[in-house]
Amino acid sequence: MCPRRRVLCTVALVALACSPACRRALGDERRLGGGPPRRVVALTCNATDIFACLGELDRVVAVEEDCPAPGTEGKVRIRNDDHVGKAKALNVEAILALHPDLVIAKPALREVLGPLGVPVLWPPVRMDMRTMPQFVRQIAATLGVGARGEDVLRAMAAKQERLRRRTAGLPRVRVYYESTGLGRSIGRRSILHEMIELAGGANLGAAADKPGIVLTNEAILAADPEVIVLSPFADPTDEVVARPGWRRSSAVRHGRVHRIPLDRRYVLLATPRCVDGCEEFLLPWLHPELFPAETGR
Amino acid sequence: MHGPPPSRALRPPRTWPVAVTGGALLALVALASVGFGIIAVPWSTVAGDLLAAVGLGGAASDDHIVIVNLRLPRALGASCVGGALGTAGCMLQALLRNPLASPTVIGTAQGAMFGAVLAIALGLSRAGTLATSFTMSVGAVTLVLGMARTRRALPVESVVVTGMAVALMFMALARLLLAVTRDEYALGRMTQWLAGGLWHANWDELRMLAPLTVIGVVVACACARSLDLLALGEADAHRLGLRVRRVGTVVLVGSCVLTSLAICIGGMVAFVGLIVPHACRRLVGPTHAVLLPASASLGAMLVVVTDTVARTAVPPQELPLTVVTSLVGVPSFLVILRALRGRRQG
């Protein structure tokens, strides 16, 4: 075979090998062993927000239905039991219909997603300040942006250190956090607990060694919270302060009942942006004395 | 000396023609279910993949994972759940001579559900989950019968009311377990289980549970004659030579095993065990030789169809299976209640 013909044949073969039909015929090689994933289904809100932190949200084609991360508008939303107690079915075929080359799902779905031949990344069972950086590194490495992952983590660590320095020596402020209704609060296994501690507060539900806790009305009033932080989905603020006996609490008397804005609720996720939430919301709410200019206004 | 052969009308109905017809219809419905889904797969590809899966065809297609690992286990799981619940309901209705008896009404399903959740919390294996589920199911039915039985009788209303109370108690226990469990992985799995449905059906589970379900249904069909006698009442059955207590225990344990299997495969699925035996009684008559295989087949077909609706109606979401079966079941339940009232007044 003459050299020119050999080159032409090689080019034709390479073009054929790169065609979608050929890749399909060759099976999942592209998905399993190829380059970084380009079609990711992220079934946990934390993972989606980590993609956003890394500036790689374009790769995500579907997110969990309640995912609050900005930039996910218009993406396919797939129902999942991401939140304990929701107990909803997951449509597995809907995931495959999106032809993902990576799925991120919580470990409890291992038996369901394992046999489907799609690469799956499992986050840690418990996402906290200790396990989260490792998961950020894992996602960054999978996407081939390891250096950017380290930058994000360095920035987060610097903010954490700054917060610790600012709140060192300050009295701990008693904080009651309410998620969706009277008494529905957080235990010490919640990322929010760590956020409150970081911002110089003491969580009222810290005695519970689990993510969530339901506190009784009486227990809340007996603890006399100095600051009440409401999630975007908690009862309206005027209804909260009008609850029997609540007007006597320090938080209500001093007008220290605050609500996380609905469009910023992603700061409540276990991702590097939770530290932004501490700086932007919790620190000024818990320690207004650190912001004299704003307090004086 | 043999007498003249019984006339066609008096000949007792046989099990196998109903079983074969029901089985064939179920196979058709299950195949149709495997062909339907969010991902459009040509029928020729579905057939090719199914043949390849059993080693009869050529190479599997790109969609073989969807067909063989996703839809086929769901169809098989749905068949097992429906077949088991239909049979268990039929057995309980005959044993308790109560048209309202079913695994969910008398609390055996809720007992089994609590057992399964407890096994997950304790980190038990699949066999352990089945055993715990079965034990709790038996515990529930024992409690119901013990509380409902008066000195001489087992009043229908008393069984239903006690059953509902026991069912609520076991559901409350399951929720309590959810509230106190600290292991977050176990918590995730328990939540999945309580969601019910067949979206987590997989071959690993079905390899163990599907054969057991088939054996359970076959054993139940073998008890058909005894169930016919039991349906006459304890005194009449005893007079006709039936060891009522022993047979009653076997039937009760059998129904609990089938209920536990259904719960272990697909979680709580309401109304199948209640409405399917009634529908079959209208179709094939009250003789258990035909009623049991008919209930198993129709129950299986009902759950296969409702599961197909659940996974295809509102993509990319999935409807809870029990919601779809309840939408079918509640109107049927009301019709049954109306018919019962009419019979009493008549």
Alpha-carbon Rg of chain A, integer: 24 Å
Number of helical elements of chain B: 14
Structural class of chain B: mainly alpha
Low-confidence stretches of chain A: 13-33
Task: Give the low-pLDDT segments of chain B.
Answer: none
Structural class of chain A: alpha/beta
Number of β-strand runs of chain B:
0
Q: Encode the helix/strand succession of chain A as letters.
A: HHHEHEEHEHEHHEEHEEHEHHEHH
Biggest sheet of chain A: strands, sense, closure?
Answer: 5 strands, parallel
Proportion of beta-strand residues of chain B: under 5%
Main interface by residue count = A-B, 38 and 37 residues
Shape of chain B: globular
State the separation between the terminal residues of chain B, measured CA to CA. 46 Å
Strand segment tally of chain A:
11
Portion in beta strands of chain A: 5-15%
Q: State the distance separating the first and last CA atoms of chain A.
A: 85 Å
Number of helices of chain A: 14
Average pLDDT over all residues of chain A: 85
Helix percent of chain A reads 40-55%
How helix-rich are the residues of chain B, as a percent range? over 70%
